[in-house]
């Protein structure tokens, strides 16, 4: 799904047309490289960490969100992927009337994903975003823009 979003961004923002077979090929190649990297990592000797459990795997269920925003457009869009358990994915996409900034777009897509999560019956969900400013705002590491002095 990530490569579809990237191809869409290239088309709208840069006028670059990426054919669907090329997108699928690129995604397949990246996925294969990731799998090979995982195998190579497991072949290395395990590193011992004293009294600390290290995990880079996101918890389940989780939801990854991403928005698509263009200045001077009448609409914005976005999507989300629910990973409900290993190997189980549910996808959603949304188009809405334009908002004032990419941050607002990301926040709206997150809210939409949260509503959908509740509609699916999930009251506990881990949400992930590539919008660092949104993550910092939610984690209270940064002041909300309208509240900043």
From TrEMBL:
GO MF, any single term: nucleic acid binding
RNase H type-1 domain boundaries: 77-142
UniProt cross-references to InterPro entries, sorted A to Z: RNase_H-like_EbsB-rel (IPR052929), RNaseH_domain (IPR002156)
Protein name listed in UniProt: RNase H type-1 domain-containing protein
Annotated source species: Brassica oleracea var. oleracea
């Amino acid at each position: 799904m990530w490569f579809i979003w990237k191809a869409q961004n290239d088309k709208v923002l840069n006028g670059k047309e990426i054919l669907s077979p090329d997108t699928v090929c690129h995604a397949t190649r990246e996925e294969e490289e990731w799998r090979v990297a995982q195998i190579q990592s497991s072949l290395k000797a395990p590193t011992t960490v004293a009294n600390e459990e290290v995990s880079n795997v996101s918890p389940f269920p989780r939801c990854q969100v991403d928005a698509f925003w263009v200045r001077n457009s009448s609409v914005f869009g976005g999507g989300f992927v629910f990973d409900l358990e290993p190997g189980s994915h549910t996808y959603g996409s949304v188009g809405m009337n334009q908002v004032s900034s990419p941050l607002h777009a990301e926040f709206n897509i997150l809210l939409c994903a949260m509503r959908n999560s509740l509609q699916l019956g999930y009251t506990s969900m881990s949400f992930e975003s590539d919008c660092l400013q949104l993550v910092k705002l939610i984690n209270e590491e940064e002041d909300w823009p309208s509240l900043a002095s």
